[in-house]
Design brief:
alpha/beta; six-stranded mixed sheet; four-stranded antiparallel sheet; 7 helices; about 25% strand
């Protein structure tokens, strides 16, 4: 199964400005793919289409054989909550909830939070957050907040993890920790990871690199460091 993009076009505004021009590619289960390109190349727009956060102007996205444009809103909601995890440059944690409560949010939506609390506590420990489960986001460092956000994205064991510049607001040490968590999820859990990054060194750690130039695929293959 996996992800399939068919003739993806995305335009914004009136008159429309086309940001993505008829992209075609597939991503297999278990791949670690980096999306790269200059600012404005369309990589974040593409990520949101693949992750079902936005709809294409034309063309289609399929996840495990499901055409996102034809499934019901209930099915789409279920797919987002159970099969897809998203991590952004900024953590978007709920400020009034503790670290544990933030990570439990997807489970709560699925009415599984009580059953999963022990597993979530173990996940926080694995992420180096033991003893900080009851702290509010403002009581955590930036790196810790991002680790909480990644734990939340992985809490339902999604098949697909989408990350949009997840290290962009972090220092070098914390960025390295975050990349290590993505690699571990990919290696040990078989999570398919699609990472938007402007960092050539991080892009090169993926199995495959799709480089966009002006909304078109410039190259697609083994990562490069330039």
């Amino acid at each position: 199964m996996g992800l399939l993009a068919k003739n993806l076009v995305k335009s914004f505004g009136e008159p429309p400005t086309t940001v993505l021009h008829g992209l075609n590619f597939s991503i297999k289960e278990g791949e670690f793919v980096s999306l790269t390109g200059r600012s404005g190349s369309g990589k974040s727009t593409l990520l949101y289409l693949l992750g079902a956060l936005d709809a294409p102007t034309s063309g289609q996205v399929e996840i495990d054989g499901h055409d996102l444009s034809t499934i019901s809103s209930d099915e789409l909601h279920r797919l987002r909550n159970q099969s897809i995890g998203f991590v952004f440059q900024f953590h978007y944690l709920l400020p009034e909830l503790t670290a544990l409560e933030n990570v439990l949010m997807p489970a709560r939506k699925a009415k599984k939070d009580i059953a999963m609390e022990k597993t979530i506590r173990e996940l926080l420990t694995e992420f180096g957050l033991e003893g900080k489960e009851n702290r509010l986001p403002r009581q955590l460092s930036g790196g810790e907040q991002q680790r909480v956000a990644i734990a939340r994205a992985l809490s339902m064991s999604p098949k697909y993890l989408f990350a949009d510049e997840p290290t962009g607001a972090l220092d070098t040490a914390n960025a390295e920790i975050v990349m290590g968590l993505f690699e571990k999820a990919n290696r040990e859990l078989g999570t398919t990871v699609i990472l938007v990054t402007h960092d050539p060194a991080f892009a090169a750690r993926a199995h495959r690199q799709i480089k966009l130039v002006d909304g078109r695929i410039d190259s697609d293959g083994p990562p490069t460091t330039n």
